[in-house]
């Protein structure tokens, strides 16, 4: 059972990263309102594929809850009925949760696929929670944290609805993203907690330094998310991608300059790691990710914020945090260690 628990935890972790990637693609393509309602899409379980499906037509059957776009507004069918030759206003109620009333088939299906990934990811999470109770006698924290992680999945689904109802209110989008980051952290903790592997002994300065670096990385993700919201806002207002950098507020400069501090902190971690005689391969994923992130950051700044670079930049930032946390949970501090003796099982 415990082996299957760890497998499910890893599968769920991969699913969460896919959700983050899909969500980033949604924002990259401007598809966040592709489905203007939640959990259905224009009132359909399977969303429309043609303009005609969201237009009023005579002699057509409409089901309760289905939507049409009419006079630059969304209207909801108040029951099951077949239309006559003329439009009857009493059959319809205006959708008043927001004023977005555009149908774009690409945006609709991009958002719908994002929702499907989120929904199907809940299946391994539910199974994971059930299996977690096999640890009840051995370690009650595992089932309790699994329940909390399942709750966070539900909270994220609810927050997704709030984001849609609010027509992509900026800070709600940031909270939505950080909810995913919390879920990632919880899953990594559950994997580490259930592994029962010996920890690597490191110099007493390394673990707090790694903890600081991890917190700084999370803060950089927060700054980057705010920059992303500013970029989205500017693009919606008509600013061209090539001109975005010139009109971004000061938070962009803070985010860019802050990356220098982050690199220096990672170099400090490398120095102490090397002095302790630890396996440098353990830090290789961190420096590979940072290198790619720097390249992507330069590309975004000087190449007009290319679309594909945006989701890659975000997902790598979250992978960096995830690996840092994994490493943090796998080490334990001691005041003196013999050079070259420490190894990670």
Topology at a glance:
Elements: H1 2-28, E1 61-62, E2 67-70, E3 73-77, E4 81-82, E5 92-94, H2 105-132, H3 141-165, H4 170-195, E6 200-203, H5 206-236, H6 244-247, H7 250-275, H8 284-302, H9 309-329, E7 331-334
Parallel strand pairs: 6-7
Antiparallel strand pairs: 1-4, 2-3, 3-5
Helix pairs in contact: 1-2, 1-4, 1-9, 2-3, 3-4, 4-5, 4-9, 5-7, 5-9, 7-8, 8-9
In short:
The protein is mainly alpha-helical and 345 residues long. The protein has helices at residues 2-28, 105-132, 141-165, 170-195, 206-236, 244-247, 250-275, 284-302, 309-329; strands spanning 61-62, 67-70, 73-77, 81-82, 92-94, 200-203, 331-334. 60% of the residues lie in helices and 7% in strands.
Key features of this structure:
two-stranded antiparallel ribbon, 60% helix, 345 residues, 7% strand, mainly alpha, three-stranded antiparallel beta sheet, flat, disordered C terminus
- Compute the separation of the termini in Å: 22 Å
Mean pLDDT over the full residue set: 88
Q: Write down the secondary-structure element order.
A: HEEEEEHHHEHHHHHE
In which order are the strands of the major sheet placed?
A: 2-3-5
Shape: flat
| Radius of gyration over all CA atoms, rounded | 24 Å
Query: What's the number of extended β-strand segments?
Result: 7
Quaternary organization = single chain
Largest sheet: 3 strands, antiparallel
How large is the count of helical segments?
Answer: 9
Strand content: 5-15%
SSE-based structural type: mainly alpha
Fraction in helix: 55-70%
């Amino acid at each position: 059972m415990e082996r299957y628990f760890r497998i499910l935890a890893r599968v769920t972790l991969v699913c969460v990263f896919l959700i983050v990637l899909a969500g980033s693609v949604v924002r990259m393509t401007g598809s966040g309102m592709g489905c203007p309602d939640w959990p259905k899409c224009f009132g359909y379980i399977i969303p429309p594929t043609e303009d005609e499906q969201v237009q009023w037509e005579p002699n057509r059957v409409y089901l309760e809850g289905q939507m049409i776009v009419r006079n630059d507004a969304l209207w909801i069918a108040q029951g099951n009925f077949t239309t006559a030759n003329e439009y009857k206003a009493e059959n319809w109620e205006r959708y008043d949760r927001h004023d977005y009333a555009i149908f774009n088939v690409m945006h609709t299906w991009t958002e719908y696929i994002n929702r499907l990934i989120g929904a199907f990811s809940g299946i391994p999470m539910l199974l994971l929670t059930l299996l977690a109770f096999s640890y009840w006698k051995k370690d009650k924290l595992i089932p309790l944290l699994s329940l909390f992680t399942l709750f966070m999945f539900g909270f994220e689904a609810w927050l997704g609805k709030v984001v849609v109802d609010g027509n992509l209110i900026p800070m709600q989008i940031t909270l939505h993203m950080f909810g995913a980051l919390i879920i990632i952290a919880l899953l990594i903790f559950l994997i580490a907690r259930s592994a029962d592997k010996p920890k690597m002994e490191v110099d007493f300065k390394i673990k707090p330094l790694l903890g600081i670096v991890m917190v700084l990385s999370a803060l950089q993700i927060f700054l980057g998310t705010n920059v992303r919201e500013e970029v989205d806002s500017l693009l919606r207002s008509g600013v061209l991608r090539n001109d975005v950098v010139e009109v971004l507020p000061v938070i962009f400069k803070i985010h860019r300059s802050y990356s220098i501090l982050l690199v220096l902190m990672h170099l400090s971690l490398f120095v102490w790691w090397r002095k302790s005689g630890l396996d440098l391969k353990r830090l290789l994923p961190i420096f590979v990710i940072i290198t790619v992130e720097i390249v992507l950051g330069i590309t975004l700044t000087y190449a007009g914020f290319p679309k594909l670079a945006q989701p890659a930049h975000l997902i790598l930032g979250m992978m960096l945090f995830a690996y840092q946390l994994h490493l943090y949970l796998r080490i334990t501090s001691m005041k003196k260690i013999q050079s070259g003796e420490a190894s990670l099982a």
